[in-house]
Amino acid sequence: MTSIGTGYDLTNSVFSPDGRNFQVEYAVKAVENGGTSIGIRCKDGVVLACEKVITSKLLKAGANKRIATIDRHMGAVSSGLVPDGRHFTSRAREEAASWRKVYKSPITTADLAGRMGGYMQAYTLYSSVRPFGVTAIVAGWDSELELPVDGQVGSGPSIGSGGKAKDKKYGGPGLYMIEPSGIYWGYYGAATGKGRQTAKAEMEKLNLAEGKMSLLDGVKEAAKIIYVAHADNKDKEFELEMTWISNLEGPTKGRHQEVPKELLEDAEKLAKKALDGDDDDEEETKDENKPAEADKMEE
Amino acid sequence: MNHLPQSWGRPRDDIYGAYDHSYLQSNGPNQHTQSPIVTGTSVIALKFKDGVVIAADNLASYGSLARFTDVKRLRSFADSSIVGFGGDVSDMQYLDRLLSSLDTREAYCSSGHSLNAQNLHTYLAKVFYKRRSEFSPLWNQVLVAGLDAESKPFLASADLLGTTFSAPSLATGFGAHLAQPLLRKVAPDEDAVAKLSEEEAVQAVKESMKVLFYRDARSLDKYSIAVVTKAGIRLKEDEKLENQSWAFADKIRGYGTQVN
Amino acid sequence: MSAMFSQNPLMNGPNYSFNQAPSTAAAGNKEHGFYPYTDNGGSTLAISGSDFTIVAGDTRSTSGYNINTRYSPKVFKIGGTTSSQDDATLVLSVVGFAADGEALKERLDAIVKMYRYQHGKPMSVKACAQRLSTILYGKRFFPYYVTAILGGLDEEGNGAVYSYDPVGSYEREQCRAAGAAASLIMPFLDNQVNYKNQYIPGSGVGHALVEREKIPLGRTEVEDVVKDAFDSAVERHIEVGDGLQMFVITKSGIEEKYLPLKRD
């Protein structure tokens, strides 16, 4: 960042001569300091997980959730400035609700990502505002059935095609990541925050693009990844928070919900076990399994 | 001047004839809905010891025309309550979407707490009362079936004026005349409810639906029926009335082949 | 709105709830408009004694000839700090349009609660009575279609009853009946509580007649008067019946009593 100090980084919406918006880049820095958040797109659902850094022992365990429900079929998690994440959530909820008001059907994950991408991009354009200090991951399950319109009362003609296309495929899992610049892409596996590099490396090993990962495996992998990625943030304690959205036949019936306690604990146990194994292999010099001890305290 | 205050400020009846009150309406606050358009007929419901049975037929009428014959008038809420709608169908659809958005908003905080039927009824009654006070009523009478805060069976009514009441059995529209007496025979009070089994309750409700089909000209033999208990909702939306006997109609003028 | 004011059955027919739409047909096409009121029948009654007040009401709710339910209370404790209203000191009865009654009750309850939180003491009946009048008059041009009666104990500990019309005109009274059977119960109360038209037998003729001594009724007597009043009203008015709910307010708290009435 050689151009720092040239004055082009002091206000939003101004380009530097070499075509950069420094305010956006600084916002990305804020994200890079935040706890790790990830999303995994599985064949029958999507998982969101985050490393919630405990800022004080006086905070109630399990309270102050970081993964939010946007609509019944959609959730979001963000890394970076928590209040900015809250505002992101609030705006996303408004977008989802207004979509329903207009179209009488749930917003798709892609559409929500588009709306939010546009919203965040607008915060790079004006000198009166600053960019969002968060990168958000949005996950949703778009119904695989032809959804009834909200409030629909009948089921249409019982003979003939009834206006329905035969064998048409609908919906499926959706996972998008939106950055402070407003850029957004769809992902098989998304990661952001302090441990993103580690998390990305782990996710690449999973061959998510093949679309074979089941949701239950996704939950286990997500827990493992958050624990592995926590190595980048070892001096702080954390809580693992995880939500999921399954298909309509699955455990959440297309709804965004917290991963049930037992399942989460199982996944956490597996994650710790895997981590201990790694530690034994690689770094025996580390003072006797200290991380495992520290981890126990969070429960 | 007349000594009756209510005639002050109005033209004298003995000179101008009876005062036309309808004139006042165009002068008053804005009125929106003047009457319902596409309507559903009765909803009936009965409490039993572990829950509530509720039923409504699948017809939406346009005046005397049987306009839509596949209309689901029992709407579920949060997988734990059923709202049965009588009256205007478009207002029902509006309320259904309103409840759906309420359910979504409730899911924002993942406390595990959810609104029960009693909460839902209070909410609906306030919506109705607010709208009637704005002279823009939602033209429905609804029955809310589910469980209250103590997980005991809950059944209550709310209507376009915001009027609310609760009873062991309830029926809207024509059902209030035809079905309610039959249901009250089965469950005259809460003590009787505590002894009533699910089978008996379902039987009584199905029997009442049949009577309503016999006598309500705006009814249909296809209906929806739901049982709400602690275990959740069992909603069947494509039921057909069984074992009808039209023998009674034989001697009634207008029913059989003999018209006059 | 004339049905609201006139209690004269010869003029309006019996005061059934379904008679309120204008009965005189207008000339030309008339559209069926929305009428925001209905009458849910029922009757209420309050009597104050030297150190107690009784507020009572039947529990039937009607629409036309239909009984909505046999248990829909019209009498409520007001201004307690808990949902059970255990520490309430005031009782409000509302009869007429039940939805307005409910709304009025909720509003007054919230106001009296706020008063208690802000002043650190329960509201007096006198203050509450004035406040209730203000609330009712606030909707002077779209009234709460209810007849309210407020009961409690005044600053001296004497029973207090305040009665209202739908737009907030009020006065403190010894006793008051309201609702569908008000015209049946009120004269009975005049006679039995205030000893109207009761003379000492053989005391004279015309102006020489001596009135019976006016001894204030005790609590048990008043309870009996209330029961008799409702039993009689049930016999003669179809919108009254099913159950009698009674709140007895004394300095030691509010006692609730429920008695069955005829369900026919």
TrEMBL record, chain A:
Source organism superkingdom: Eukaryota
Gene Ontology BP term (one): ubiquitin-dependent protein catabolic process
Domain Proteasome alpha-type subunits per the UniProt entry, residue ranges: 8-30
GO cellular component: cytoplasm; nucleus; proteasome core complex, alpha-subunit complex
Residue stretches in coiled coil: none
InterPro entries: Ntn_hydrolases_N, Proteasome_alpha, Proteasome_alpha-type, Proteasome_asu_N, Proteasome_sua/b
UniProt-annotated stretches for the region Disordered: 267-299
Alphabetic keyword roster: Cytoplasm, Nucleus, Proteasome
Basic and acidic residues: bias regions: 267-276, 287-299
Biased composition (Acidic residues): 277-286
Cell compartment(s), UniProt: Cytoplasm; Nucleus
Family recorded in the similarity comment: Belongs to the peptidase T1A family.
Assembly behavior: The 26S proteasome consists of a 20S proteasome core and two 19S regulatory subunits.
Protein name in the entry: Proteasome subunit alpha type
TrEMBL record, chain B:
GO cellular component, one term: cytoplasm
CDD domains attached to this UniProt entry: proteasome_beta_type_4
Keyword 4Fe-4S: no
Locations listed in the record: Cytoplasm; Nucleus
Gene3D superfamilies reported for this sequence: Glutamine Phosphoribosylpyrophosphate, subunit 1, domain 1
Biological process annotations from GO: proteolysis involved in protein catabolic process
Keywords recorded for this protein, A-Z: Cytoplasm, Nucleus, Proteasome
PROSITE patterns referenced in this protein's UniProt entry, alphabetically: PROTEASOME_BETA_1 (PS00854), PROTEASOME_BETA_2 (PS51476)
Family matches, as InterPro entries: Ntn_hydrolases_N (IPR029055), Proteasome_beta4 (IPR016295), Proteasome_bsu_CS (IPR016050), Proteasome_sua/b (IPR001353), Proteasome_suB-type (IPR023333)
Pfam families for the chain: Proteasome (PF00227)
Main function: Non-catalytic component of the proteasome.
Family assignment from sequence similarity: Belongs to the peptidase T1B family.
Protein name per the record: Proteasome subunit beta
Automatic annotation (TrEMBL), chain C:
One cellular component (GO) term of this entry: nucleus
Alphabetical UniProt keywords: Cytoplasm, Nucleus, Proteasome
PROSITE patterns per record: PROTEASOME_BETA_2 (PS51476)
Record-linked SUPFAM superfamilies: N-terminal nucleophile aminohydrolases (Ntn hydrolases)
Compartments it resides in: Nucleus
GO biological process, one term: proteolysis involved in protein catabolic process
Chief location bin: nucleus
Name of this protein: Proteasome component C5
Organism: Calycina marina
